[in-house]
Structures are given as structure tokens and as C-alpha cells.
Amino acid sequence: MKVxxxxxxxxxxxxxxxILEERDxxxxxxxxxxxxxxxxxxxxxxxxxxxxxxxTDDAFSGLDLVLGAAENEIAKRFKDSIVRSGAVFVDxxxxxxxxxxxxxxxxxxxxxxxKLHHGxxxxxxxxxxxxxxxxxxxxxxxPITEMIVSTYQASSGAGQGxxxxxxxxxxxxxxGETVTPKVFRYPLAFNLIPExxxxxxxxxxxxEMKLQNEGRKIMHLPEMNVTCTCVRVPVIRSHSISATVRxxxxxxxxxxxxxxxxxxxxxxxxxxxxxxxxxxxxxSDQDLVFVGRIxxxxxxxxxxxxxxxxxxxxxGAATNAVQIAELLL
Amino acid sequence: MKVxxxxxxxxxxxxxxxILEERDxxxxxxxxxxxxxxxxxxxxxxxxxxxxxxxTDDAFSGLDLVLGAAENEIAKRFKDSIVRSGAVFVDxxxxxxxxxxxxxxxxxxxxxxxKLHHGxxxxxxxxxxxxxxxxxxxxxxxPITEMIVSTYQASSGAGQGxxxxxxxxxxxxxxGETVTPKVFRYPLAFNLIPExxxxxxxxxxxxEMKLQNEGRKIMHLPEMNVTCTCVRVPVIRSHSISATVRxxxxxxxxxxxxxxxxxxxxxxxxxxxxxxxxxxxxxSDQDLVFVGRIxxxxxxxxxxxxxxxxxxxxxGAATNAVQIAELLL
Lengths: 329, 329
Fold this sequence. Notes:
Largest sheet of chain A: 6 strands, parallel
CATH superfamily of the largest domain in chain A: Dihydrodipicolinate Reductase, domain 2
Number of strands of chain A: 14
CATH architecture of the largest domain in chain A: 2-Layer Sandwich
Structural class of chain A: alpha/beta
Order of helices and strands of chain A: EHEEEEEHEHEHEHHEEHEHEEH
Oligomer: homodimer
Distance between the termini of chain A: 9 Å
Number of helices of chain A: 9
Strand order of the largest sheet of chain A: 5-2-1-6-7-8
């Protein structure tokens, strides 16, 4: 396959190239595309140096697949050119996720939806992928009706500059220097920022509403309601999620553990007496979503609480997109 | 008043001395007490150096008040000697909090309970104080029936060694050295640890159950149910809480903001369009609990979600204890 990467020089684009390589995706040509500013740079792929080209309307010709790792505006700008060129566009931006003509796919959950595409398939939001992979097995016992979720989101979710700024600020703390935040609105070192995304309805942020809106579409649960609080934490690259999940009928922690342990893409790490539970340092730089701390919700007999962690750049973005591409092979 | 501090050399004990000074608590004698190991050290108080004495059964004679900043075992060991000496014991340990003969007091919420003491008054758990101060005003509109809470707890909650270990680990990250965690079970730098306290019932931790059990007693809500997930985060000294709060009858975000803004001990910091919300760096080293991100709970018409932050060492421990002592003056 001839594969283009739109936004190849960003954090997610680079991770996509690494994961295509790692998973030995069958590629006859890799075409990294980015802004004029990045054109001419080279990126390593299977031992070769591949030159980045400028993304233009003509840059997609001959490609079979384009993985999108660019912002919404760039994705919108080039969508028609990509589809016209005959390539399938697997896009990580949020531009088309809620479009009824565009499948929104987590391969472990709704692989069949990928086949219904008309040229574009969207990759979901990172926290949504990690949460959905973690909880989806419960639907096999009884459908999820509500979730109350608080996130602990890593700096990597803000792109390449996120971890750089966090580490610079942290270093500056020790030297007594001051770093003016640019990527984040406030200092993130030894702090928390309870605002991710822009403002949506009812004083929620766009990031907070994605878990409900995208979660409904991925899990085919159009009536699921989700209350979500998204918080940026001084962690480098794994997102964690504290979720209270209610199902139509009660599910016991034992039943939940049994189906979650068998769910694709998940590792059950749930042994409080032996101090085993998901932690971001353990889930970084690998593809599995860790689920643990499963226990009864003390406020509802239809509820369970749990703690979930997964690598934001890999399963939360690049790996999921490459897995979607694998469904198309 | 003649005031003893039991556990005077720990993080909370030192903070208590600072706060007694700051609030100009009327003291004719300050008697810092600690283990034999710390006896002979000196602590600054109103410009003088006061010598730490060993805590023994006879060490409390003549005192009017003892502020307890020691562990459960030490609090239990000396309780009877303190009461026998005629002093009132305002204790920060969890040893007596659920004892029906011991008032558990947050002065902004249940000051009247302090008067019912028989020699011992307990200071609540730090996350519980901060959460209760933040949400209590809702009870004036309709009683709280349930809370679903995820905490973001600072390293200071583990005592003086907590921030030291976090900072050492963080420094070591940059120098490439490895620090073996001693205070925390796992590295906390750039990580999260979803276990605080020891194991309680139903796979909850003791720390997680405190919010329900102590919250019921403080707010006089014996039937309130709380599902809590406690997570240690790489923050130095303020705890934050993401809370979804359900009341008997629906309360609107506007009504909630109005009563919370007027509540004692609280600052409403709730303006998402202007990016104002509670953050641990802003709440550290002061006494007010910040509440913001107030919005509808999308999973219940009786619910509200909000984000709360407060200094763990001050309002979460030392300040609250000194405020209890002020009720006794």
C-alpha cells in the first residue's frame, strides 16, 4: 500500500510512522506530508530517510491510504482532495467524528463500522478510546447507561510541545527560573489544570463532551449519558481515567473482572491487597489499556467504579489509527 | 492558654505552630512534644526558640489544650493521660473520629458539635474537610444524598517526607539517577498512584471510605452514600477533588453558585470562559477552599459536578484544628 501521513512531523504523526514500522504494515511507499515549513525535513522509516513533502491538493495522488495526524482545519482543508485521489482517509482530528457518514472506530469494539466508510474514517478522542476499550466488555453483560468520569490526562495530549513544556517548567522549578507557559494556559509542573479543549454547552468543555458523544457512537449506545471532568496532570504520556459506570442491570465486580480480563486490548491489573493497579508509568510506550480497582459503586446497585490507564499517543491515537488501517487491508 | 502540640516536629505539627502564631491564638505556654528522638530540638514560636520535650504520660500536666499531630498509635497511647491532665485533646489522627462520644468538627459546618465533647475532639481527614467545606452550602437548598468523587491528592498528605521524595525523584529524572521510593509505594514523579491508605471493605481503601463515613458525621447526613476513588498525584501540597453531588431535590448551577459564593471558608472561582477555576498552585499556603467548574450532572437531574481545591496542610489539617481550638476559647 502507498501510505501518506498528513501532519507527519507532529507527535502523533511520528508515532504513526513508528507503529507502521513496528507492526510491519505492508507499505510500498511512505509519503510524509506536512506544512511548507516542515517540507524538506527527513524522517526515518525502516532504515531509510524519507523526505517530508508539503501537503497540497496534488500531494495525495496515487496513495491508497492517508493517516491524518493534523489539526481540524488542516483535515477539513484536505479531506476532499484525499477522497478525490482515491485514498481512504483515517483521520485523528475531531473534524468528522460526529458526521453520520463517517464511521468512528475502535477496532476492538466496532470493527464492522469501518467497512461502512465513504472515504473517511475517524479515529476517536484519546481519552474516549482508552475509556471505551476499558469498559466496553461490560456491555456484553448489560448495556452501559451512564458513566461519571474524571480524567487524569498527560501532557502529551497537547502535542509534541506538551511534554517539552512540562519538563522545562519542572527543571526551572529547581533552578529557580520562571518559564512562561505557552502550550498550556497555566504552569503544569506540580499543578493540575481542570480545563481541556474549548468551551462547549452547559459549562462543559469540548473534551468533556467527547466521551459522551463519541462513546455513544463507538459503543452503539445512543442513550448513554456521561458526566465528565477533564483534568490535565503533570504526567508525560499516559492518560488515566477514574470511571463510575452504571449498567441497565446490576453487574458484580467478579463478573466485570471476568469479562474485562478477556476483552481485546485490555490487561486486567486489579489486585489491591498486593498493590497492583493501573498507573501511567506502567502503561506508557505500549498498546494495552490497563483496568483495575474494580469495585461496587456505593451510590447505586447498578454501578461499578474502576481506574483505567493507557498510552495516549499509542492506543489513544497512533496505534488505533493503524489498527483501523489494518481493517482495510 | 497553655497549649501542647503532640507530634510537634512533623509536617502538621510544624504547620499548627505556624498557624497558632499567625492567628495570634492566646498562648501563655507552648509545649511542643514528640518522640524521644526529637526531644531537645528547638522550634521557633513568636521569635523565641521553644525546646521539644519527650511525650510521656506526665508531659501534659497543666495544659489546657493539646493539638494532636501524631499517628493513630501515638494518639491512642496518650489520649487518657491528656484527658486526665484536664486538657482538651483536638486530635488530627483518625483514631477517634468515628467514636460516637467524640465530636468530628469542621468549624464552618458543625461548630455546635465541638461543645458536646468529653475531652476529645477529632479533626477530620484532609480530603474530607476540603470536600465538605466546598459542597456543604448545597445542604441549605436540599440535602446531599450521594457523591461520586475522584481525588487528586498532593504528596504532602503523606507527611513531611512526601514532598521531599517527590522532589528528589523529579530531580533524579533529569540527572538519570534512580531514587527508590520509601514514602510512597511507587515512584510519584510524573506518575499517579491510585491507592491511599490501607485496604478497607469491598476493595475500597480506608482513605476512600473516610469521605462517606466522616462526611455523614460532619454534615449530619447519616444516609449520604459516597463512592470515592483516591489518587496520589505529583503535586506538592494542595488536594483537589472532582465531585458529582446529588441532592434530594434538583439544584441549578446558578443556585449552587449563589450559596457556595456566600459559604464560610470558600472562594467561588468559577468562570470557564475566562479560564478561572480552582488549581492546586493557587490554593497552596492559604486557608480558603476554592470551588469552581460548577455545572449540571448530565447523568441525573438531581446532580451537579464541580472541582474543588484546598491546601492539605492548612485547611485540610492544621488550620481546621486551630479553628476548633478557637471554638473552645
